[in-house]
Structures are given as C-alpha cells and as structure tokens.
Design goal:
The protein is built from seven helices and eight strands. The protein is of the alpha+beta class. The protein has two domains: 103 residues, no CATH class; 79 residues, SH3 type barrels (Roll). The mean pLDDT is 83.
C-alpha cells in the first residue's frame, strides 16, 4: 500500500475517532434542547471535546480486545464506540440536564421562552387569542406538538373545546387544531389535572 493511501486512511480514522462521535452527540442533544444553528467551524472544538469524552469512557475496550487476541470483536467494538456509544452518551447528557437538580443549580441557555415552556412537556389548557378577535381553547398534551427554534410559534393542540354557560365542552370527533404563529396575538396557559396516561 502506498504511503499516500495510508495517510488518507489515517486521516479518515482520525476524523471518525475525534470528530464524528462529537457531532452525533451534538445533533441528538439539539433535537431535545433547542439551540441556535451552528456552522462547522464554530462547533469543531465542542465536537472534539465530546469525542474525547466518548474515547475516555469507552476507548479502552478495543485495546483490551486486541491484547487478548480478539481482533474481530475489537473491530466491532470500535464501530460501536464511533456510532452507538455517542447516542447513549447524548441521552445520558439530556437526562442529566433535564433533571430537577441540574435545572435548579445551572442555567441552561434555551433560545426562547417558547422553547423553554414547551420543552417541559406540560399538560396544559391553552386559550389562544386569534388576530380576528376570536379564541381557540385546546388541550396541549402528549400527542400535541409545538415547533421549536428557529421556527417556533406554530402549535398543534390535540383536543379542542367550546365554552358556554355550563363551562368547557370537548368538541367530539375533532382531531385537534393546528395554529400557525401568524394567526394569533397571545396564548394563555392553564394548569390541568389531566394526564396522558
């Protein structure tokens, strides 16, 4: 094998080991914790840091398998470390920053109040004040959805209600309502005892 080809393989391996796991972690975390869009040059160090953490936790496994003459298992473990392990670490990180203790002692930078509220997965009754002067009252639960940064503002409510002298009445046979962010002026949130269970 020529020296040039060997160098290409080493560069690919270095990228796969030192950058790829970090990007996997960052991408998964950003699915759960809304954040600003990023350019590659701006997050290279962060990806590198996450990759080093991944290697520090799991990198000893392939070396141990090679030392014990289990080369096939070493290759399998290396593939696992580069692809599956970062996913596991990302979910651990999300669990950590979502914990009550962490939220009480650290300030997680979430881009908008909208993202912060809906990332809590609240079971809430919402009164949406539309620009035409009417209101929509709906339930936001486990089957509802709110868009996140940078496209925040649109919301799907899984249940819709009417209001009369007797109070709220669920609109039967409704499959919910989708409200675009340019259709309303404000939203009121009410705690409900309803659960998704």
């Amino acid at each position: 094998m020529e020296l040039e080809n060997i160098l290409k393989i080493e560069y690919i391996f270095a990228f796969a080991t030192l950058i790829l796991p970090g990007f996997i972690i960052m991408k998964i975390v950003r699915l759960k914790v809304p954040n600003k869009d990023f350019l590659l040059k701006d997050v290279l160090f962060e990806a590198f840091s996450y990759s080093l953490l991944n290697i520090a936790i799991t990198g000893w496994v392939p070396y141990l398998l090679i030392e014990t003459k289990h080369e096939n298992w070493a290759i399998f473990s290396l593939i696992f470390i580069l692809t599956v392990s970062p996913v596991f670490l990302a979910f651990c990180y999300i669990k950590l920053i979502s914990s009550k203790y962490f939220r009480e002692h650290f300030d997680i930078q979430i881009p908008t109040a909208w993202d912060w509220y809906f990332s809590q997965k609240p079971n809430s009754l919402l009164r949406v004040h539309l620009k035409d002067g009417t209101d929509i009252i709906g339930y936001f639960g486990g089957d509802s959805y709110a868009t996140s940064y940078p496209n925040e503002g649109s919301i799907y409510l899984e249940k819709v209600y009417t209001i009369d002298n007797d109070g709220l009445k669920l609109i039967e046979n409704s499959n919910g309502v989708l409200i675009a962010k340019d259709q309303y002026t404000s939203i009121e949130f009410y705690i409900t005892g309803e659960s998704d269970g």
